[in-house]
From TrEMBL:
Reactions it catalyzes: (6S)-5-formyl-5,6,7,8-tetrahydrofolate + ATP = (6R)-5,10-methenyltetrahydrofolate + ADP + phosphate
Protein name per UniProt: 5-formyltetrahydrofolate cyclo-ligase
Database matches in NCBIfam families: MTHFS_bact
Binding site for substrate: 46, 51
Keyword terms of this UniProt record: ATP-binding, Ligase, Magnesium, Metal-binding, Nucleotide-binding
Keyword Transferase appears in the UniProt entry: no
Essential cofactor(s): Mg(2+)
Source taxonomy: Bacteria, Pseudomonadati, Pseudomonadota, Alphaproteobacteria, Sphingomonadales
Annotated EC: 6.3.3.2
Family of the protein in this entry: Belongs to the 5-formyltetrahydrofolate cyclo-ligase family.
Pfam families per the UniProt record, alphabetical: 5-FTHF_cyc-lig
Length: 181
């Protein structure tokens, strides 16, 4: 099995090539729409590079009366926190090329966490950027519904699960909705 660093590099390459060739997009599936209720907090993210864009799910959540939150990132070592975001509100430049709400934004607890990822397997294991930001966020919000968003080419047969890994409840790609547990 490839080590995580080599696997990340390979998956970034596959993701870039797939998006350049196919221009895929996600659509909000019925299983996601059924979960939405007015007042729920949905943590989304601003996509980096060729990451899957959660915008169609954000639009559905706003239409259902949900609140959108975005991660606020300080650095690799500091846990991320989720902050409320009004659609169209100003974003500032953060680390890693991210756009994010300013540090003054208030912290909220998400009910659903839309999670970017580099790789996934069908057991709901996830490979992220390696800073442990989402691993730690999942521990901080154990009751949140953890939904991974990715392109189908990011699937790998099996990811090694580390002791701290918290599996996803569901995965969405441009091809399918994968419900776990
Ligand atoms: N869009 C998005 N937002 C996110 C994440 C993410 O993966 N994607 N995060 C996930 O935890 C958190 C930010 N943490 C991050 C930690 C490390 C790197 C990082 O090492 N980036 C690489 C290049 C990434 C790429 O091209 O895919 C780098 O800077 O070299 C990025 C984000 C919260 N927000
Ligand atoms: N609950 C936690 N508390 C503190 N550190 C954690 C926790 N979970 C993970 N970590 C640390 O974060 C790092 C995560 O590395 P790993 O390669 O598993 O990240 P990943 O799979 O890319 O996921 P992520 O998207 O969360 O970064 C490890 O160094 C690990 O020790």
């Amino acid at each position: 099995m490839m080590d995580k660093k080599a696997l990340r590099a390979r998956l970034r390459g596959l993701r870039d090539a797939f998006v350049a060739e196919h221009r895929p997009s996600l659509a909000a599936p019925a299983a996601f729409l059924r979960r939405l209720q007015p007042g729920l907090v949905i943590a989304s993210y601003m996509p980096l590079g060729s990451e899957a864009d959660p915008a169609p799910l954000v639009r559905a959540a706003l239409a259902a009366g949900c609140t959108i939150a975005l991660p606020h990132v300080v650095d690799r070592a500091t846990p991320i926190r989720f902050v409320a975001w009004q659609q169209g509100a100003a974003l500032v430049a953060g680390p890693f090329g991210l756009s994010q709400p300013g540090a003054e934004a208030g912290t909220v607890a998400p009910d659903i966490i839309l999670t970017p990822l580099l790789g996934f397997d069908r057991a709901g294991n996830r490979l992220g950027q390696g800073a442990g930001h989402y691993d730690r966020a999942f521990v901080a919000h154990p009751d949140a519904w953890r939904v991974g968003l990715a392109w189908s080419v990011q699937e790998v047969p099996a990811l090694p699960a580390d002791p701290w890994d918290v599996p996803l409840h569901a995965l969405l790609t441009e091809r399918e909705w994968i419900a776990l547990s």
